[in-house]
Specification:
The chain is mainly β. The protein is built from six helices and 41 strands. The strands form six sheets. The protein has a 22-stranded antiparallel barrel. β19 and β20 form a beta hairpin. The longest helix has 11 residues.
């Protein structure tokens, strides 16, 4: 009897042993009895172990970051989290990520999804990830190669952001944050509320926050003749300060109708309103007179974005499922700008008023059927369709007189998508698995400026093949390989022939326009990776990738009617390749008696070559040579205190966008420090110090004109430290 009681106590202690209970020590006690009971190994899986198990079980290369991982750094936005992931880089100044890119490939090569659906556009661009608070996210999935289930518009890969899921039990949480930057404070309040009532479960996540940013930029430009004679120069300094108030809501309602049917409804709402004030000062010692000496500008923005997604999951028996999803989205953005330009004496030269109105509406639907076959296959097929429409209207008054069209410029674009796919997930045996897919997509685009209408139609057939071979003790080592075709469609804005002017027009500050004759970019890609999994959620992996991109789209600048204009064009092809290394481990696993420090490290190396541009440095736009992330966490023994740090490094590099242009991008070095004090089981206090190094970012552009004149632009953007204090409570 005592020995059996000991067995029960061992089972009770399982959750305290880190998630696994090996029953052998308890069996030893039971073997002393005449009739030993048969005990089985019991596994208690936490969220971190589920994330690592999902990564290991996936046939296609996938990395999963759960809530615990996302909350580790105390960040309030997902953009700041993503810059720490393997192979992920970003545009923008140090500590202020803007466009998130996989493998350094920007401009739409990275597919961003929310709950498996493409992110709706926002003012002609994809939605800013900083508009999604971390509290509203359940997990982030990073998929390195295209799979048939998702759109093949993922040349670099896919980032799928999964919002909070169903409440499995009653939960209440509150998070209050005070963010500090450059002497200004910005509060944030977010919370989650979830419960179940019979067959109905619901979860409400929301956040109210204020955010602001200061920026200080300095520019120097000069033009010299071939013999070095100074022809023109200018210096400018601009200071901008922005403030935005936001409201985010993401409710989720799930109703289990019966054993076979489940209905789900999930809205997603973002409302933001803000303004930016800027001041610019210019001077020169040589060259043509500058258009102004000082300028004061104020822009007010009002943005609303909403999405509604509904799904019906029907179980047909024997593992067969039918999933119907319907979603609609709408967004609108209103920008109003007032700008006064003055001479050195302070006299008003030009008063400009600009208004832009954007409206976007979309509707998508998908139907997926899946069924197990022959005990080793899971076959899925799906049909998708959707359409979206974006309209823009802009007006400009200069000194009270309308410029361009008296009624304003109108732009109307429509896009229709349809897709059909089939996918077979084949578990050959416990060590080998394949994922075979074939996806067909058709895209119809039209752009109407009121004077001209342009239509673009494309269809792409994208096969994909992913395989995994597990080996070693307990199948803890894996070899992965992928071959897939992907594409990138030109954006609606790139098809519009409208011209956006630059008041300081020049070869490095050109006007911008689109090209209605653009073709889609088509790419073939391969992946080859190896991973080793250890105890305590540890993993070490290495991945090689290669892409060939045909019909590469790149902007080229030329002189037209006395003004410099940037226009997208199709070039021949480009190639890119790289290696990605990542690891997570505990120091005590390598060194006996070492402190219980959790380390995270990832390093990526990229190379690329654009065929139609002379080398060296004829790489893809914004793609650095390499990127490094180092992180560590340590829980102090005897204290409810955990401390950690993360260091992100992207070295400087050169890019040659055209044969007569060379850009220099400065290095980024970002060090973040954080500490968490656990007050009690449901209350934590987090302190985060961001961008501690506060290194400014320098840049340079060198442009050789047709007449041999060399123009050089130098830039310096200041960076600022930040701090945040967060109180987290589970009620």
């Amino acid at each position: 009897m005592p020995s059996r009681s000991l067995s029960r106590h061992c089972l009770t202690l399982a959750p305290l042993l880190g998630g696994y209970l090996i029953a052998t020590p308890c069996l030893a006690a039971d073997e002393a009895t005449d009739t030993p009971p048969k005990l089985e190994t019991i596994q208690v899986t936490g969220s971190r172990l589920r994330a690592i198990d999902d990564r290991r079980d996936a046939t296609a290369a996938k990395q999963i970051y759960d809530k615990e991982e996302l909350e580790r750094f105390g960040e309030s936005t997902v953009g700041a989290i993503l810059r720490r992931l393997p192979g992920v880089t970003y545009s923008g100044n140090p500590g202020r990520p803007s466009e998130i890119k996989m493998r350094g490939m920007g401009g739409g090569y990275t597919q961003i999804l929310i709950d498996g659906e493409r992110v709706p556009p926002r003012q002609g661009r994809t939605v800013s990830l900083d508009m999604i608070p971390v509290d509203m996210i359940e997990r982030i999935e990073v998929i390195r190669a295209p799979v048939a289930e998702y759109s093949a518009q993922a040349v670099a890969g896919t980032i799928n952001i999964v919002l909070n899921e169903d409440a499995r039990k009653k939960s209440r949480g509150l998070r209050a944050v005070l963010n500090l930057e450059h002497g200004h404070a910005y509060p944030q309040l977010s919370g989650q509320l979830g419960d179940r009532a019979g067959s109905l479960s619901w979860q409400l996540s929301g956040a109210v926050l204020a955010r602001g940013q200061d920026s200080l930029s300095q520019r120097q430009s000069e033009e010299r003749a071939a013999d070095g004679t100074l022809l023109a120069d200018s210096q400018s300094q601009s200071h901008r300060r922005g403030h935005t108030d936001e409201l985010n809501l993401s409710p989720r309602l799930t109703w289990r109708v019966d054993e076979a049917d489940t209905l789900m409804l999930q809205p997603f709402i973002v409302k933001s309103r803000g303004s930016t004030d800027g001041n610019i000062e210019q001077s020169q010692t040589a060259g043509p007179a500058l258009p102004y000496a000082t300028a004061a500008e104020r822009t007010e923005r009002d943005t609303t974005q909403a999405r509604m997604m509904a799904s019906w999951n029907h179980r047909l028996g024997q593992g067969e499922k039918l999933l119907l999803r319907v979603s609609g989205n709408t967004s609108q953005g209103d920008d109003d700008t007032r700008r006064d330009e003055r001479d050195a004496a302070g006299a008003l030269l030009r008063h400009v008023e600009e208004s832009q109105r954007m409206r976007d509406h979309g509707l998508q639907a998908s139907l997926k059927w899946s069924r197990p076959l022959f005990d080793t296959h899971l076959v899925s097929t799906g049909l998708e369709g959707g359409q979206s429409r974006r309209s823009e209207h802009s007006t400009q008054l200069e000194n009270g007189v309308a410029t361009g069209n008296a009624d304003g410029d109108q732009f109307d674009a429509r896009e229709r998508r349809s897709a059909l796919y089939v996918q077979d997930e084949w578990d050959i045996d416990e060590r080998r698995a394949l994922n075979l897919g074939l996806r067909w997509e058709q895209l119809q685009q039209s752009a109407d400026t009121g004077e001209q209408r342009h239509d673009n139609r494309l269809s792409v057939l994208s096969p994909s093949l992913h395989g995994v071979w597990r080996f070693g003790d307990g199948n803890r080592q894996q070899l992965r390989a992928s071959l897939a075709r992907s594409y990138k469609a030109p954006g609606l804005g790139d098809l519009s022939p409208r011209i956006s002017t630059n008041s300081n027009n020049g070869p490095t500050r050109p006007d911008r326009t689109g090209n209605p004759d653009l073709k889609p970019e088509l790419a073939w890609g391969t992946e080859l990776g190896v991973e080793s999994y250890f105890a305590d959620n540890s993993v070490i992996g290495a991945n090689l990738f290669w892409r060939r991109i045909d019909e590469l789209i790149r902007r080229q600048t030329s002189l037209q009617d006395g003004r410099w204009v940037s226009r997208p064009l199709n070039l021949s092809n480009a190639r890119t390749a790289g290696i990605e290394l990542d690891s997570k481990f505990r120091l005590s696993q390598l060194v006996d008696g070492a402190p219980e420090i959790d380390f995270r490290a990832n390093y990526s190396r990229f190379v690329s070559k654009v065929a139609d541009i002379d080398g060296p440095d004829n790489r893809l736009d914004d793609q650095p040579d390499q990127v490094l992330n180092l992180g560590a966490d340590y829980r102090l023994p005897g204290l409810p205190l955990s401390v950690g740090s993360n260091f992100n490094w992207t070295p400087g590099y050169n890019v040659r966008p055209a044969n007569n242009q060379l850009n220099r991008i400065d290095a980024k070095r970002v060090l973040d420090l954080f500490a968490t004090w656990t007050i009690d089981r449901g209350t934590r206090l987090r302190l985060t110090l961001g961008n501690v190094l506060a290194n400014s970012m320098d840049g340079a552009t060198r442009y050789v004109l047709d007449n041999g004149v060399i123009r050089t632009d130098l830039s310096e953007d200041s960076a600022y430290r930040s701090a945040s204090l967060a109180l987290e409570m589970k009620l």
